[in-house]
């Protein structure tokens, strides 16, 4: 399936996100519940918003009355909230960071990166996702700056919640895309954004809701485990089991539910972890290019899982 083309004015992810769904979009779009196109689905819920690739693509082509975005990662929710409430102020902060970065030589840029990273980590204990204040604007700018200039565009934290990705050495990083931030702000204007566990969405889900779960992937091996550390508390197999139970709970409510995850059979053909967890639902294996080792040579085409509680006939659907 070809990747959908962006149209002028279309909002797209403003963060590079490990495990982001941009490349998997054609597969996800082709498996949207038919009720979206027919107006039978009136709300969209994404409990692990991450980079938001499906959220942005879906809203470019369909009218959804209400959207609800959640994530356990406070820093991520802070970013979305700042764009929703103060996009122009955020753009101003990013313009300053971009100017300071590009006026330096390579060593100066590296030093500036670590200076911002240190400031970011020094304020960890002072940041809360409760309420809203203008201190969030500077922090959101730091997050976007670090994400755009760090190695591989990762968002990774240590057990204390500190951002620990090294400098990326990009010659011309895209630190500020003001047009996209304004487009994102327009889309988020009427969207509910909340920080919390994936179960926090329970009360807003009914039989007219489409829910997309994109949790931290179950690592294929120890080398890929590092890429799922986007929240200090992690997401282990117990959480995967709890998520599967919640998937069944929302299915019982009549909601249309989709979930993506890694396919353990890529490395162990006998590993039926997800096949067992989601027994009775539609499980499809689709190809994706991922980093499956600790260096660039480890990139390769592997299967990922798309699990739904409904069936889509791909011979008749046209996706978006």
From TrEMBL:
<dbReference type="InterPro" id="IPR012327">
    <property type="entry name" value="MeTrfase_D12"/>
</dbReference>
<protein>
    <recommendedName>
        <fullName>site-specific DNA-methyltransferase (adenine-specific)</fullName>
        <ecNumber>2.1.1.72</ecNumber>
    </recommendedName>
</protein>
<keyword id="KW-0808">Transferase</keyword>
<comment type="similarity">
    <text>Belongs to the N(4)/N(6)-methyltransferase family.</text>
</comment>
<dbReference type="InterPro" id="IPR023095">
    <property type="entry name" value="Ade_MeTrfase_dom_2"/>
</dbReference>
<keyword id="KW-0949">S-adenosyl-L-methionine</keyword>
<dbReference type="InterPro" id="IPR029063">
    <property type="entry name" value="SAM-dependent_MTases_sf"/>
</dbReference>
<dbReference type="GO" id="GO:0032259">
    <property type="term" value="P:methylation"/>
</dbReference>
<dbReference type="Pfam" id="PF02086">
    <property type="entry name" value="MethyltransfD12"/>
</dbReference>
<keyword id="KW-0489">Methyltransferase</keyword>
<dbReference type="InterPro" id="IPR012263">
    <property type="entry name" value="M_m6A_EcoRV"/>
</dbReference>
<dbReference type="GO" id="GO:0009007">
    <property type="term" value="F:site-specific DNA-methyltransferase (adenine-specific) activity"/>
</dbReference>
